[in-house]
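Reader question, answered in our methods column.
A reader sent in the components of a multi-part assembly and asked whether the whole thing could be modeled at once rather than chain by chain. We filled in our standard form and ran it. Here is what they sent:
COMPLEX SIZE: two components
ENTRIES:
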Amino acid sequence: MLSLENITNTIHEWLNATFNPTLALLSEFVLIGICAIALFAMLGLSLVLMERKVAAYMQLRLGPNRVGPFGIFQTVADTLKLMMKEGLTPDGADKFLFNLAPFVVMIAAMMLLAPIAFARGFQIWDINIGVLFLSAVSSVSVIGILMAGWASNNKYSFLGAMRSGAQIVSYELSAGLSIITIVILTGSLQISDIVNSQENGWWIFKGHIPIVISFITFLIAITAETNRAPFDLPEAESELTAGFHTEYSGMKFALFFLSEYINIFIACALGATLFFGGWMPFHIGHWEAFNQIMDYIPSSVWFMGKTFFLIFLLMWFRWTFPRLRVDQLLSLEWKYLLPISMINLLVVTVMAIMGWHF
Amino acid sequence: MFITNYIKDIFNGMKSLLTGMKITGYYFTHHKEIITEQYPDNRATLKMADRFRGEVVMIHDENNEHACTGCSACELACPNGTIKIINKFELNAEGKKKKAIDTFVYHLELCTMCNLCIIACPTDTIKMEPNFEHSVFDRSQLTKVLNHTGSKIKAGVE
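And here is the structure of the entire assembly that came back:
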């Protein structure tokens, strides 16, 4: 059967048979790099279009519908426009940091791709601290954002960057605590172990109400961490024009924009892996025939479907909920999410010790 | 008590958020609700709203007759001098001189579509039309004469 696992294994064997191991490894690096960049470009194009279409339909509009059928080439045209534009560096800016910041954000987003399992046996690096790696590296991008805000020499950018720092520092806590609940139930930080532990049912079904609560906490926290509305204070179009990327233009702006969507994709992929079983098909108990049919759907389709469902959920949030003020944002985290997720963690721990989950 | 209020807060918040999501979810799945008009494409079938004010026109019936008595109530009501009424005197059937309208000059370029002239008109002879395609290459084309050539006042309108 044709699967991504077989393709990668064939390429791996062929490279090792043709070249010596070092050269084979290096060429695999190059291949993975090309695949990652291609995936990023595709994600950027499709997610921006999806965002605009979802926004339009939720606001009783049509959205982009002129370039190509149903406007599917709108984002391609936009990207071409951004490529042709001049990447301006302001006079008063710290030139080196200003030009470095978009790449820091982008590289942080790229590193996050490593431990994600896209399909059965299709993973760049099955590191044994996968979940920890993801939650640690995802906060690296805040350095890039702070760098951009500071180097722009612009009060709006600086305010946006500071807000972004405050937001990510606070919401990292509840995101981490909700991830830990799954880690407790699984007993492993490795992504492949977490996915395999959900073979007989996804954690959101097996874990009763506490896991549903931690899923909701996780969803709120990743919305805040990816700087999306209703938590879009670092960008805050109404007060800060565009926040930390006010001074950026052309392709450097596009990198910020792209990394934002990549971060959404990765956060949703993590959510799908932890709570919805990653690439695991949907199985119901002992319905053998039903399970067989579900197994026929490729694992990559399952993974992408779940991830895009979560992305759609985040877009739904964005175009429905009103924005929060800075103080409301912080009180939501420190007064509500953090105590709830701490109690929830305790409940899940008791549940795991007593073996009350399925 | 603090803790009950706290939990009640959370539940009310979640409920109101879900109510909002229900509405946007309904709009997302029901595309018939879309209100966008794809204007140049749907020009043939475009229907403007009933109360849309595009320009002032004078109502003429099939005999090319209108109900304007030339009272210039609309001219007085207009806040920015959009309307200028020029009257003439006609001899009626009994040989008496009677005031009648000669030209109803309407400056579209000055009009703010405030509707005050329509309210002021005692015989309801002018009304607002939903026509909005007013762009022309010369400003003088926006100065319009509303009464048609050869039109006259309806019999019985004083």
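What stands out: The radius of gyration of chain A is 21 Å. Chain A touches chain B through 15 residues (CB under 8 Å).
Send us your own complexes using the same form.
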